[in-house]
Amino acid sequence: MDTIRADVTLRESYGFSAIANERKSARELLVHQLRRCADRTSLPAGLRALTQYVSASHYLLVRHDLSFNTDIGFVVASDWPFDMVRGLTGSVDAGHSRMSEFDRSCNLMQPNFSQFPDDVAVPDGVGREYCAITLNAGQVRMTLLLLFPEHFILSQSKLRDIGLLTGYFASVCCRPSKRQERESDLTDREIECLYWIAEGKTSDEIAVILGISRNTINNYIASVMRKTATKTRSEAIAWAVRNNLV
Predict the structure, then answer these.
(1) Distance between CA atoms of 174 and 229, rounded to whole angstroms?
(2) Per the confidence metrics, is the pTM higher than 0.85?
């Protein structure tokens, strides 16, 4: 998101914002909107802009590090009808759980289309097919689910844009508090490794998820234990839980 802000700031410094907005591409206008929403930490407004960019009608953003149960605490933001959320998210979680970590990593940013079960009622004018895009927002795995008007022809390139931009935008709007950041001098990558350890992943699995070598992962974990004065991975996880890092 810092890259997004820097890009927009550079353009404005040269007076491009004074030129008619008609000259800007839809993607440039979207980035400009996301910048304003990020400044206000307005997640719903940003998700609405992302939804409109692909001409979708509704958005639902869920996170996979929380339990998918009836209290829908896993929902980050949504404008779906409540009954649709409860009726669908269980199947989303089940599909995600059945995949290996390697498959989940390969599936990141890839638009996947599914049909609603027959017993799920959709709003008038909305198609029965929905699009799911899984992404990483910082150290949290999320899925963005989009509804579209009936008989609408989708743009695959715009959907790929959405996955990347949603990840950046959500990582800004869902970042930990300043107090939590001050409590630890761990780097972002060390906290990311700590998160996956808490998820029960081995060094080999984390290496696949993050796309770096197993030795590098072990170095990060050793650094975490040194900085937190812990001797085992279990102690490091307990420390992270106490400090609200995982």
Answers:
(1) 28
(2) no
Q: Which of 27, 44, 41, 48 is nearest to 147 (CA)?
A: 48
Which CATH fold would you assign to the domain 2-173?
Beta-Lactamase (3.30.450)
**Mean pLDDT per segment of 10 residues, for the chain of length 246 residues?**
46 44 72 83 87 92 68 77 72 66 77 85 89 84 90 78 86 60 68 88 89 91 87 84 70
- Separation CA 158–CA 167 (nearest Å): 14
109: Cβ contacts below 8 Å, ≥ 6 apart: 133, 134, 135, 160, 163, 164, 167
Cα angle vertex 59, ends 56, 65, to 5°?
Answer: 145
Q: DSSP secondary structure string, 159-224?
A: HHHHHHHHHHHHHHHTPPPHHHHHT----HHHHHHHHHHHTT--HHHHHHHHTS-HHHHHHHHHHH
Looking at domain 178-242, its CATH class is mainly alpha
Check residue 155 and give left, alpha or beta (phi > 0: left; psi -120 to 50: alpha).
beta
How many Cβ atoms from other residues are within 10 Å of residue 148's Cβ?
20
Show me where the domains of the chain are located. 2-173, 178-242
